[in-house]
Amino acid sequence: MKRRAAAKLPPAANGMTLLAYLSGRFDYHSSAEWQQRINNGELTLNGTVCCDPDIGLQCGMLLEYNPQNLIEPAVNSNYNIVYEDDFLLVIDKPGNLPVHPAGPYFAHTLWALLQESGHAAVHFVNRLDRETSGLLIAAKDSRTAGELAKTLPDMRKQYYVLVHGVFENPICARGFLSTDTTSTIRKKQLFTAGTTPPDGAGKFFEVETAFKPLQSNDFYTLLSAELHTGRMHQIRATLHGMGFPVVGDKLYGLDEQFYRRFALGILDENDRRQLRLERQALHCSELSFVHPIDNKVMTFHSKLPPEIAALLG
Q: Is the pTM of this model over 0.70?
């Protein structure tokens, strides 16, 4: 696959310098890294290589990024477009496929793969972690993306999630997410159940998730999880706080040290046996929203991935 991406500049880029726009809009590289890539001739404007970081941009210019010597981890690129019209796409994403460029991933992302298949740069409306599979919406233009974003609080999003332990009864888990100050991993969240915010939590978010057991054996339970609010890591952090860690989850699973060893590339066979899966067992199984143009209710379903189903026997 060609490691390139191109897009017409939006009105917000008008009058900005090339370096300022890249640094602010695409933060998977630092400002210094973008400076070096501009110097390397990896950016073109309207088809011409641009080595001037201070050049002024105009709305409608075609900006293209041709990264050189970019070695990316392998991903699962078997995504499926389950619906498409003139305004949006509904995509069923596999696990181990990043949605947006970040860190070591650029060409090996859903965003870049869609461009490679002939779609212009899309705007993702709901996002899934790299390891989470399932349904998400991509708008074909900024206006559609803006209209869909207004309806995000009313979108119905339901997930399958496999957890360690026997989860016996349905429950609506209400509580708060805040930074886990007991962890040295900055992005880890802590779920505290109840109606009163935890003392000394700093910034926190009120969250609510409905869980229902669907199937279990002696070791695992498959749950449906429906978000009544939507915050980063909400399902995984809530289940961890309830004592039911998600199978395969390196951060909110049996031991957060899996996450550190994974980041360092030193997971061993014993780690993998405990994790049971190469990715977290979380799958967006149902997505329902109002189409921004004709106001019809659109509902889509996705089956439980076989690698998760296999652990239930």
A: yes
